[in-house]
Write a sequence for this structure.
């Protein structure tokens, strides 16, 4: 199973390039609708015979498989929702391939990962974080291949564990499948596939971020008007399928009444915002936006999110530290209702916003500190 680290090589007709990318996008869309439903995923080609007739671009590791993947990656750069969709769907496809291939596929995948990691570290221009991730992956892959984890990965009673940084398996941490100790988590043998899927997702995210940050390379890729036209066409196709509002699949919805009890499980930054809100009944504008987005992405429906803020902003402000003295009664609460509906993609530009990443929050706080120091 390829991790799509190494860019594709060779020649392909422009028409075939476009067709393969569209076929892959259609296939990924169907997969994304059936996340975690393995039995139904097997029937996609039955239900959509046109995909079966043009499925050469989906043969794992083939040139057309890699080309169609990378052209979709290029098309996603300007759309955050496209990036989220692509990461989710490609990871689901990767997991399905591993499950179907068994131990042989897992071992092959690890060997490919080792080879491509070496290539990337030697030949690709990587930022500090991406390079660090690949170095960690290289070390861990060697541990797996030289251990007996592959032979007992289906044994729930096995006591073999692999210690990895929690940042490599953030999805497992998020779903509380593993416990963090000193920044490390223990990955048992029977979690090997989930671990590889987390690595695949992390590699893909970093690959897209690299493409986004290296503006010169990105613009050179689109300097060919034909490639630019294809990527625009693919974005339009994605918009038509997902309505421009790709939504993360959330296992359950919570209500505004659940937030207090659930807050003890929130990331520390969001716990702090919740404590400030509970103590003062107010948050500063940007803090309120961050917390609204976080509540949205953990499953709070739009009406429940509005009710949540109404509960606090209908009360009097208990402290001036938040710098906000507005009340829900101002303009009948329409200002806050609009703000919440806006981040759900129901107002304004109809963009379905997602939570800020840890890196984005850290950069924002760092810039605020620098600005404050400069002013003082």
């Amino acid at each position: 199973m390829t991790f799509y680290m190494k860019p594709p090589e060779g020649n392909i007709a422009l028409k075939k390039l476009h067709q393969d990318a569209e076929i892959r996008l259609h296939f990924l869309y169907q997969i994304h609708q059936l996340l975690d439903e393995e039995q139904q995923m097997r029937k996609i080609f039955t239900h959509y015979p046109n995909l079966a007739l043009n499925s050469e671009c989906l043969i794992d590791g083939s040139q057309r498989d890699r080309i169609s993947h990378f052209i979709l990656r290029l098309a996603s750069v300007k759309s955050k929702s496209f990036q989220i969709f692509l990461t989710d769907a490609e990871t689901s496809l990767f997991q399905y391939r591993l499950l179907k291939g068994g131990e042989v596929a897992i071992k092959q995948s690890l060997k490919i990962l080792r080879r491509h990691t070496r290539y990337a570290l030697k030949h690709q221009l990587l930022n500090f974080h991406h390079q660090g991730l690949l170095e960690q992956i290289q070390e861990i892959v060697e541990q797996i291949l030289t251990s007996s984890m592959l032979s007992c990965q289906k044994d729930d009673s096995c006591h073999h564990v692999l210690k990895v940084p929690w940042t490599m398996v953030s999805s497992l941490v998020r779903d509380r499948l593993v416990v963090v100790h000193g920044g490390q988590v223990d990955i048992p043998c029977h979690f090997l596939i989930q671990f590889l899927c987390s690595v695949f997702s992390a590699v893909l995210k970093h690959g897209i971020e690299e493409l986004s940050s290296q503006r010169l390379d990105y613009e050179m890729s689109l300097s060919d008007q034909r490639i630019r036209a294809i990527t625009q066409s693919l974005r339009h196709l994605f918009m038509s399928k997902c309505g421009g509002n790709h939504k993360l699949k959330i296992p359950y919805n919570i209500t505004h009444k659940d937030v207090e009890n659930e807050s003890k499980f929130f990331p520390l930054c969001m716990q702090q915002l919740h404590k400030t809100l509970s103590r003062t009944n107010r948050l500063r504008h940007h803090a309120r936006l961050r917390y609204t987005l976080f509540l949205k992405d953990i499953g709070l429906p739009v009406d429940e999110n509005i009710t949540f803020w109404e509960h606090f902003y209908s009360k009097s402000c208990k402290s001036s530290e938040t710098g906000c003295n507005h009340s829900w009664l101002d303009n009948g609460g329409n200002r806050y209702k609009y703000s919440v509906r806006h981040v759900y993609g129901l107002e304004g530009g109809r963009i379905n916003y997602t939570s800020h990443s840890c890196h984005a929050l850290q950069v924002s706080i760092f810039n605020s500190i620098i600005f404050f120091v400069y002013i003082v």
